[in-house]
Amino acid sequence: MHKDKAGNIIGVGEDTAVSILNDIFKDGSKIIPQYPLKKLLTDDYVDSLAESYLKHKVDILIFSPGGRKIAIRVQGKDHDGVMKSARDTVQKKLMEWNGCVVVDLTWQECPYLFKEQKDENSYLEVMNALEDSGLHIT
């Protein structure tokens, strides 16, 4: 875990995920780490949320050339707790209701990614998570 130049906390696996996603999405997609959640929501949703939710950021956001928004969440062991997992559920629904495909890269499903290993195994973990979310990348 470290902070980027803007002071955002970058969790374990996020840098490796960005690197892998850049290799996978060579179709002109824009890949943005630490994208503000509130920029994905309509004004109605923004107005109804507590300030704490408005400060949240999506680990990685992909804007595809066709206009699809793909939110990638890199979720370590700290997301197993009751409170954080409840917030994660709300965040996922908010993004889906606002037109995002949400892909979760969890520590249980992506052990190589969470070891910061960029190899065949971590590529397969990311590809499987994309497919599990209904995305079929060729």
Describe the protein:
The chain has 138 residues and is an alpha+beta fold. 36% of the residues lie in helices and 23% in strands. The chain has 5 helices and 6 strands, in the order ββαβααββαβα. A 4-stranded mixed β-sheet has the order 3-4-5-6, sandwiched between helices. The radius of gyration is 14 Å and the shape is globular. The termini are far apart.
Layout of secondary structure:
Elements lengths: L1 E2 L5 E2 L3 H11 L5 E7 L6 H6 L2 H4 L2 E7 L5 E7 L6 H16 L2 E7 L13 H13 L6
Radius of gyration: 14 Å
**Percentage of helical residues?**
25-40%
* Helix/sheet category: alpha+beta
Please count the beta strands (DSSP E, at least 2 residues each): 6
Q: What is the overall pLDDT average?
A: 88
Strand content: 15-25%
Strand order of the largest sheet: 3-4-5-6
Number of helices: 5
Low-confidence stretches: none
The end-to-end span amounts to 31 Å
Order of helices and strands: EEHEHHEEHEH
Summarize the structure.
This protein has 138 residues and is α+β, with helices and mostly antiparallel strands.
